[in-house]
User: Which sequence fits this backbone?
């Protein structure tokens, strides 16, 4: 029975009060541990099609008559278009349409960041479109850009300011036996999904058909409908396979609006795809942060004060990501005060990137805690244990499930290795071990729906209009359906990716996909199971309550088994149709994921080269549906985190604000040669309060503690404090020099007491 | 007129000068298994075999190709494909065809490469999802 509730929803740390229609979640969770299908390693359902290059990504679609688009983008960080003349472009060979400011909401004369779109041309080939863009006559009035985040905050150029506090910070600091203060900085990093952002639009009758590389077909649908003034059902959004998003592909964005307008004008399908160089400018980014932090503790390590003044260098638009989140939520500290400002700059807009805010905030907090541990001469792991929060330290609500202490316990053997690791240091290569804790959301929530149909062959197809962005969603959800129906995984097919051909499913972001869609799929399968058993009761003339469905058979109370196909085979072309929806999250509880990572590094003190040699990751994300896919998520998150920490950095020219790193040789992502030994471990303890599955999301937790664990390992190895990312060789050498100066200073000081 | 053998089939094609092999494969022949992710030879997604050698098709002029071209479509029954699926060396899958072509070229030359050899020879194929440990496993176990 559906009911209307008022509830708080969370996506990537952004909260909203909304009305929601939810169904009761009446199913009992399965017992913990591996089941017939759920909890067992499964290769990807669509792995073969992807590996063979058979599946079609948006980039692979070739619609008949399709035109290609090139976009004129601002080369200036801040400028006004005085005059733009499209006639030269319209006369160029192969050109079928050109639009400028006023023709499309995504095009503007006011350019407040490099790459903002001014005009667009579509032609028979991309080369023709690109050549035609060069023929657009344009006059610019260049304006002074604002590029520095601190300056923006000083001038009041902020998109948002958020403060929070509990207790009395001054009181906490006064009480503390040791206080550490430091400024931490994180840098801008790019998603660089392998498939660039792109859409193909065409009009069929009064329906706009959009093929787009997206993490959220329903979000793109509603955004297009709203801005184009169309009924949502007249916008069909399709994304069957997509080549990576990492948070950057949840909106329609300028290329979709440009393609839609040009499709309308030309009456032909129009593709608008970012080039790799455009991708490195305007596809979104993890924004840089400045974190001015302080932590105070009693001599025994009890935290009594935490404070942070955070600045998110957001860019021209975006949101104030929750960089203070770890400071507020991770530890039981009575006195906490934070202020987070979102600086509006003439730089391309940020977008969510795999645990936005928490990746950055964890680097600051968890490094600061190690600085504190050093000052107090305490073991870093022990310091974290001592400040473990039994309840949400912010609102004192209980956690739906938290096993962080168990994560710490399982981290001990990895942490113990530090003595042996340090002992392998040489004169020039110093080795050390560091750790960092992790907290993040990942509980998902309603709404999400699934339909399931079972045919007379006893095979099932799940239909839901979500998308599988490469995280293995389809496989995990198929496992859930197979488990509930008692049929082999190979007998479950999964259909996703078309807003016209399935019910609403949530976005593939925020570690929310599995915990949101999974319970809906299980509910749909249970609906079908109930119908099967109802038919079986009639067919075999037994009491419904005595029947079970298991191992592709109807099992009677006396143990008699009737094959499933014997029953449903009689259906012929008939089908059993079920539906399911995601129930509510537990009321009055906080749903989070937790974990800890232990990193081992080698630092060449002569060259400054840092090599990550081993990362152990222990995470608590509730029940694990597919251990194989989960291990891939852990590895992928850690590898991306290593890239963020050591090599990736978007560079801008400090005077003009132009982006300098536009190619994949200048923007340096990890390769296979950069990968350390990775040991991933999941507790696999179902969250008893959360849905019919007890599963949380895993996409984001593994990337969160990586940078702090590495920096803490470097401190362990060398005594150097790395407070700014990325840790380049020059950064490393400067930190080593500072550590040596500090050591020399200390040697000169008289011994206290 | 450009004459070319692709995956054992003979093709005669009219192409503008300057067209890349990747454009030829994807746009003219319809072999979209070969991906183009950067268009300037930095990522390896467009890797195909030319005369058995791994080649970046996005920066290879189509008119300069004389030897037989093998794309992922020509390797779909190679045991390396199954090895990638088995090891879960596929996340979004966009870089995967290029990874597999490079991996096939590697094992054709040395059927049992060491971890170091794998890391050296596969370093030109970027995977943003981070399937690298699984790729290494797939190449180590491709004959299983």
Assistant:
């Amino acid at each position: 029975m559906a009911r209307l509730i008022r509830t708080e929803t969370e996506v990537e740390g952004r909260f909203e009060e909304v009305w929601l229609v939810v169904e009761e979640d009446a199913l009992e969770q399965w017992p913990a541990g591996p089941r017939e299908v759920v909890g067992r390693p499964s290769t990807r359902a669509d792995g073969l099609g992807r590996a063979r290059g058979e599946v079609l990504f948006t980039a692979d679609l070739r619609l008949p008559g399709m035109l290609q688009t090139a976009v004129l983008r601002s080369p200036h960080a801040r400028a006004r278009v005085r005059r733009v003349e499209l006639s030269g472009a319209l006369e160029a060979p192969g050109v079928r349409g050109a639009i400028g400011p006023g023709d499309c909401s995504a095009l503007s004369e006011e350019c407040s960041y490099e790459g903002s779109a001014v005009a667009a041309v579509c032609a028979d080939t991309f080369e023709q479109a690109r050549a035609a863009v060069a023929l657009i006559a344009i006059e610019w009035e260049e304006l002074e850009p604002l590029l520095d985040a601190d300056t923006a905050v000083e001038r009041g150029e902020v998109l948002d300011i958020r403060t929070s506090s509990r207790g009395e910070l001054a009181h906490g600091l006064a009480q503390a036996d040791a206080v550490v203060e430091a400024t931490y900085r994180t840098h801008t990093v790019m998603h660089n999904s392998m498939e660039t952002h792109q859409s193909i639009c065409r009009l069929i009758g009064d329906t706009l058909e959009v093929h787009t590389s997206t993490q959220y077909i329903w979000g793109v649908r509603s955004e297009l409908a709203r801005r184009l003034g169309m009924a949502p059902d007249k916008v069909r959004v399709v994304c069957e396979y997509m080549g990576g998003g990492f948070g950057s592909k949840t909106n329609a964005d300028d290329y979709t609006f440009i393609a839609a307008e040009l499709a309308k004008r030309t009456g032909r399908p129009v593709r608008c795809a970012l080039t790799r160089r455009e991708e490195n400018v305007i596809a979104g980014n993890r924004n840089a942060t400045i974190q001015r932090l302080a932590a105070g503790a009693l001599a025994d390590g009890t935290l009594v004060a935490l404070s942070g003044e955070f600045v998110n260098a957001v860019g021209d638009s975006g949101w104030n990501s929750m960089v203070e989140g770890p400071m507020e939520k991770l530890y039981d500290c009575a006195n906490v005060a934070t202020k987070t400002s979102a600086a509006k700059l003439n730089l391309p807009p940020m977008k969510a990137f795999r645990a936005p805010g928490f990746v950055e905030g964890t680097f600051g907090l968890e490094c600061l805690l190690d600085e504190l541990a050093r000052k107090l001469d305490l073991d870093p792991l022990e310091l974290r244990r001592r400040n473990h929060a039994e309840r949400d330290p912010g609102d004192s609500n209980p956690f739906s499930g938290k096993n962080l202490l168990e994560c710490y316990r399982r981290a001990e053997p990895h942490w113990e290795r530090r003595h042996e690791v340090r002992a392998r240091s040489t004169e020039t290569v110093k080795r050390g071990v560091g750790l960092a804790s992790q907290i993040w959301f990942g509980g998902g929530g309603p709404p999400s729906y699934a339909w399931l149909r079972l045919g007379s062959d006893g095979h099932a197809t799940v239909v839901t209009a979500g998308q599988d962005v490469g995280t293995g969603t389809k496989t995990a959800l198929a496992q859930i359906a197979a488990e509930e129906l008692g049929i082999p995984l190979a007998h479950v097919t999964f259909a996703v990716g078309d807003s016209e051909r399935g019910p609403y499913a949530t976005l593939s972001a925020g570690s929310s996909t599995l915990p949101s869609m999974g319970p809906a799929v299980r509910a749909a399968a249970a609906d079908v199971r109930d119908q099967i058993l109802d038919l079986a009761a009639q067919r075999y003339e037994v009491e419904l309550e005595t029947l079970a469905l298991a191992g592709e058979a109807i099992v009677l109370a006396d143990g008699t088994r009737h094959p499933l196909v014997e029953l449903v085979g009689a259906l012929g072309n008939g089908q059993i149709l079920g539906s399911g929806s995601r129930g509510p999250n537990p009321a009055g509880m906080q749903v989070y994921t937790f974990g800890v990572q232990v990193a081992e590094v080698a630092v060449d003190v002569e060259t400054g080269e840092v090599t990550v040699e081993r990362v152990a990751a222990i995470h608590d994300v509730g029940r694990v549906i597919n251990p194989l896919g989960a291990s891939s998520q852990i590895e992928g998150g850690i590898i991306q985190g290593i890239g963020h920490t050591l090599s990736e950095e978007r560079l801008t020219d400090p005077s003009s604000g132009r982006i300098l790193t536009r190619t994949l040789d200048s923007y340096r992502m990890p390769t296979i040669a950069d990968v350390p030994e990775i040991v991933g471990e999941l507790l696999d303890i179902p969250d008893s309060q959360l849905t019919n599955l007890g599963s949380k999301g895993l996409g984001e937790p593994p990337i969160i503690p990586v940078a702090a664990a590495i920096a803490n390992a470097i401190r362990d190895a060398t005594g150097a404090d790395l407070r700014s990312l990325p840790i380049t060789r020059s950064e490393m050498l400067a930190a080593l020099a500072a550590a040596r100066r500090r050591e020399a200073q200390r040697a000169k000081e008289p011994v206290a007491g | 007129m450009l004459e070319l053998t692709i995956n054992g089939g003979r093709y005669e094609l009219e192409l503008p000068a300057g067209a890349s092999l990747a454009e030829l494969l994807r746009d003219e022949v319809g072999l979209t298994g070969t991906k183009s992710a950067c268009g300037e030879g930095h990522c390896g997604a467009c890797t195909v075999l030319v005369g058995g050698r791994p080649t970046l098709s996005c920066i290879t002029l189509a008119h300069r190709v004389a030897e037989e071209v093998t794309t992922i479509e020509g390797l779909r029954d190679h045991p390396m494909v199954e090895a990638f699926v088995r090891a879960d060396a596929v996340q979004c899958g966009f870089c995967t065809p290029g990874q597999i072509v490079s991996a096939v070229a590697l094992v054709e030359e040395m059927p049992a490469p060491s971890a170091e050899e794998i890391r050296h020879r596969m370093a030109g194929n970027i995977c943003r999802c981070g399937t690298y440990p699984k790729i290494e496993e797939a190449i180590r176990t491709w004959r299983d």
About this structure: The radius of gyration of chain A is 27 Å. Chain A has a mean pLDDT of 96. The longest helix of chain A spans residues 513-540.
